[in-house]
UniProtKB/TrEMBL annotation:
Gene3D superfamilies: 3.40.50.2300. The modification 4-aspartylphosphate is found at residue 69. It comes from the Bacteria. CDD domains: LuxR_C_like (cd06170), REC_NarL-like (cd17535). Residues 161-226 form the HTH luxR-type domain. It comes from Streptomyces virginiae. This is Response regulator transcription factor.
Length: 232
């Protein structure tokens, strides 16, 4: 008697991450597409040349990630980011792309809700890693750059701490400080000697208390709220 075939228990392959590219330079979009689509788990599903094109395109396609040029005609990347995040129930993770690390537009984009920023001179591995990173819920931050931008934007601001600072527990404060250094949840878990789920719980509490959409906004709030000493 022939034995019945054993059903496969292998998990179904995950669909590729869907990405929209927003940049006013066609050559830049083409280069990004070539790099990203060389990876089996990444798929570029749309392109926009202006912020005005990007907003309805992202709404209709509902991608996982948007690479958003910070400076575009008609509507810049900051306003486009604000509109996308304000009008979608489940918005994508938005990474703003800039030429200069100290671009003041970057800080405004992060405050608007972007998950992080990437330099146009980034190499292919950094680009690919950035897309995968933000989808996991981590922030794409360059701590030194964020610290410098925050200092410039908060110069002369009142020195009193924001009310939420006093509501943080000691461990939540530790987590927020580590978040500001750019550590991932796994890295924070190892640094604090606690489990990843415990870190996720503390991160969620920090987001709630700071009124932040995500980790990036929490880090911005940490600088603006006086929690982290500003570099003068």
């Amino acid at each position: 008697m022939t034995a019945a075939p054993v059903p496969s228990t292998a998990p179904a392959p995950r669909p590729p991450l869907r990405i929209v590219l927003c940049d006013d330079e066609r050559m830049v979009r083409t280069a990004l597409r070539v790099i990203l689509e060389a990876e089996a788990d990444l798929e570029v599903v749309g392109e926009a040349a202006t912020g005005a094109e990007a907003v309805p395109l992202v709404r209709s396609l509902a991608p996982d990630v948007v690479l958003m040029d910070v400076r575009m005609p008609e509507i810049d990347g900051i306003r486009a980011t604000e509109q996308i995040l304000a009008t979608m129930a489940e918005p994508p993770r938005i990474v703003v792309v800039t030429t200069f690390e100290n671009d003041a537009y970057v800080y405004d984009a992060l405050r608007a809700g972007a998950a992080g920023f990437l330099l146009k001179r980034a190499d292919p591995d950094e680009l690919i890693g950035a897309v995968r990173l933000v989808v996991r819920g981590d922030s794409l931050l360059f701590p030194a750059a964020v610290r410098s931008l925050a200092a410039a934007h908060t110069a002369g601001a009142p020195s009193a701490d924001a009310p939420w600072v006093a509501r943080l527990t000691e461990r939540e404060a530790d987590v927020l400080r580590l978040m500001a250094t750019g550590l991932s949840n796994q890295e924070m878990s190892e640094s604090l000697g606690v489990g990843p789920q415990t870190v996720k719980t503390h991160v969620a509490a920090v987001l709630t208390k700071t009124g932040s959409r995500d980790r990036t906004q929490a880090v911005i709030a940490a600088y603006e709220g006086g929690f982290i000493m500003k570099k003068r």
